[in-house]
Amino acid sequence: MDADFIELDGVEKVFDVRRRAGFLRRERHQVRAVDGISFRVPRGEMVGYIGPNGAGKSTTIKMLTGILTPSGGRLRVAGIDPSRERTRLAHRIGVVFGQRTTLWWDLPLKDSYRLMHRMYRIPDSRFRENLDRCVELLDLAELLDVPVRQLSLGQRMRGDIAAALLHDPEVLYLDEPTIGLDVVSKAKVRRFLRDLNAERATTVLLTTHDLTDIEQLCKRVMVIDHGRLMYDGALAGLHEVGESERTLVVDLERELPPIEPSPEFAVRVVKVAGPRQWLAFPASASAAPLVARIAADYPLVDLSVREPDIEAVIARMYETGAAAPGIGGTDVGAAPGSRSGG
Ligand SMILES: Nc1ncnc2c1ncn2[C@@H]1O[C@H](COP(=O)(O)OP(=O)(O)OP(=O)(O)O)[C@@H](O)[C@H]1O
Ligand SMILES: [Mg+2]
């Protein structure tokens, strides 16, 4: 049961939509938002769930919470069928939708938390303890008396993450929890999630467009496109099958000819603008040795590493023929030993 904590077998979601097809006439058609997805997530694992816009990620998460009922297939979370026992499941899961809040818009943050305290019948001591922890680690102390509508996006998001955790959920679904956050807030949220997973063994399913989230948090990543699972394995393996590249952005003291590190680094300069240079290198390689070499040989002022964007990685998967739509839960490509559980 712990190995199959989250279980999907051939899960489908088809939406019936009507669209205008002329003056007064409307045409019905179907959108297969999720088109036969199968996977398992063992208890305590932190898994990335990524894909381009409209891929079916949020629809999957809505089915996992019971908000939406699947059109086909079988789905269980902690042995519970979400859409049939939504309330029972609600006590065991936490959800954060980055795009919209679960907090009460006009109430101060702390009043929302009080309402959750009662709704979920959280024991007082537990509630205190969890709230204190979230307030401290997510920097919420100054915000507790502020009405939610006055919070900035990043503040609201941290408030939402706390709200999702007050009742000690065993599973946390995060649908773009870092969207719109600045670098400092992102780092804070990531550290918080990493600790949560390590200390409480909370199972986490994380949807994001920021591959750095995945890189820092998830050993395993699933890629979904057009409602189908395209890849399930380690992030490094995804970069290998997609042959994707990261970019090292280097600021030198002055304008210099393109950097030429030794050939073992498989690096090429893709752009030079004044003292700034952009170097592309395979995403599956570590940046550390390359950075060390450049720092030793060049007058370095600053540098940063840019992750490839998900759309580019997926596009490369199609180009290289590595993509295998509809694999339904099997590993694609090179990622041996990357899946835990079983
Ligand atoms: N309630 C709905 N009615 C009709 N179609 C819908 C509904 N919800 C989602 N869809 C469609 O289902 C598909 C998948 O949508 P979904 O929101 O799951 O994508 P996503 O992977 O979360 O994308 P994004 O990265 O943009 O958040 C899209 O084509 C979307 O238009
Ligand atoms: Mg979405």
TrEMBL record:
GO terms for molecular function: ATP binding; ATP hydrolysis activity. The keyword DNA damage does not apply. It holds the Pfam family ABC_tran. Keywords: Antibiotic resistance, ATP-binding, Nucleotide-binding, Transport. The keyword ATP-binding applies. It is found in: Cell membrane. GO terms for biological process: response to antibiotic. InterPro entries: AAA+_ATPase, ABC_transporter-like_ATP-bd, ABC_transporter_ATP-binding, P-loop_NTPase. It is a peripheral membrane protein. GO terms for cellular component: plasma membrane. Residues 6-251 form the ABC transporter domain. Its main location: membrane. It comes from the Bacteria. This is ATP-binding cassette domain-containing protein.
